[in-house]
Specification:
This protein is mainly alpha-helical. It has helices at 3-10, 14-25, 34-49, 58-67, 70-87, 101-111. Helices cover 66% and strands 0% of the residues.
Length: 113
């Protein structure tokens, strides 16, 4: 996804982002390559930008881990921080919105082979 399009989607009205997330989660995904991990990272960025915790089934999480690459590592790490912040909002210094997803996505995609 081109960065200007991603930037526009991240700042779109919440109903638009939620509809996009619903369409994304309604499809079957296969996380076997670093490119697939980057796709999940884009979805996670958009979900978080409208206040949703990105959905990640245990099998998909394991597949992302095995796919390797910086996008998977960054996305999975930040996903764990979001889950921890949801459970303990007063005890976690890094909460949703404190690390710009667009920066994470850009860094991950630039570091990808």
């Amino acid at each position: 996804m081109p960065q200007p399009l991603l930037h526009g989607l991240l700042y779109a009205p919440a109903p638009v982002k939620k509809q996009w997330c619903t369409m994304y989660t309604g499809q079957a995904h296969f996380y076997s390559s670093p490119g697939d991990a980057a796709e999940w990272l884009l979805y996670a960025a958009i979900a978080d930008s409208c206040g949703l915790i990105p959905r990640l089934d245990p099998a998909d999480e394991q597949a992302l881990r095995q796919s390797g690459g910086p996008a998977a590592a960054i996305g999975l790490s930040y996903h764990k921080l979001l889950l921890a912040a949801k459970v303990h909002p007063q005890g976690i210094p890094v909460v949703s919105g404190s690390i710009p997803w667009l920066l994470l996505v850009r860094s991950a995609l630039q570091a990808a082979p």
